[in-house]
Design a protein that fits this description.
A seven-stranded mixed beta sheet has the order 1-2-3-4-5-7-6. The radius of gyration is 16 Å and the shape is globular. It is of the alpha+beta class. The protein has a single domain, classed as Gcn5-related N-acetyltransferase (GNAT) (Aminopeptidase), CATH 3.40.630. The chain starts with a strand and ends in a 9-residue tail after the last strand. Helices cover 29% and strands 34% of the residues.
Length: 174
């Protein structure tokens, strides 16, 4: 893909990331947050991820940040430390151009380099076909649907769970 650079997120990227995420919160169903977090909150979230050795990436097209992805804790309890949950958000103008796939491919590599063993996609809305197709195209398998677990935009939303084994997966102790 021409002019596309995938790189580690820097502090300077958070303002644009906050704008991308705010649009998803306000207009979309991929996240079940109801109010966009502040730039300060997004900075704190990034810092927590980096301090805890989770990957956080951005996609730049023609020098502009157009999307981001990170892997974070799937659950807080210590037994889950080998499992991460991925998050990917794109500027609405660049959706459908392969940028999400490029971000997720690199995120998988970064998670494996950090010795994570499983990646889980928690996809808001069972009708979120672009996200479902994206994850399936990179080997994620659907492992379940939680029906009507979120209320947003005056309707009940499902959550689809997809999973990808990373690196040594469950073949060796963590």
């Amino acid at each position: 893909m021409h002019n596309l650079v995938i790189r580690h997120c820097e502090t300077k990227d958070i303002e644009v990331i906050s704008t991308i995420y705010a649009e998803a919160v306000i207009n979309g169903v991929a996240t079940f947050e109801l109010e966009p977090p502040t730039v300060t909150e997004m900075l704190q979230r990034r810092e927590w991820l980096l301090v805890n050795n989770y990957p956080y990436l951005v996609a730049e097209k023609a020098g502009q940040v157009v999307g981001y992805a990170y892997a974070g804790a799937f659950r807080a309890r210590p037994a889950f430390h080998g499992t991460v949950e991925d998050s990917i958000y794109l500027n609405k103008e660049v959706r459908g151009q392969g940028i999400g796939k490029a971000l997720l491919q690199q995120l998988i590599i970064e998670a494996e380099l950090r010795n994570f063993r499983q990646m889980v996609a928690v996809i808001g809305d069972s009708a979120n076909y672009p996200s479902l197709r994206l994850h399936a195209s990179l080997g994620f398998k659907k492992v379940g649907t939680l029906q009507s677990v979120g209320w947003k935009h005056n309707r009940w939303l499902d959550t689809v769970l997809m999973q990808l084994a990373l690196g040594e997966a469950d073949r060796t102790p963590y």
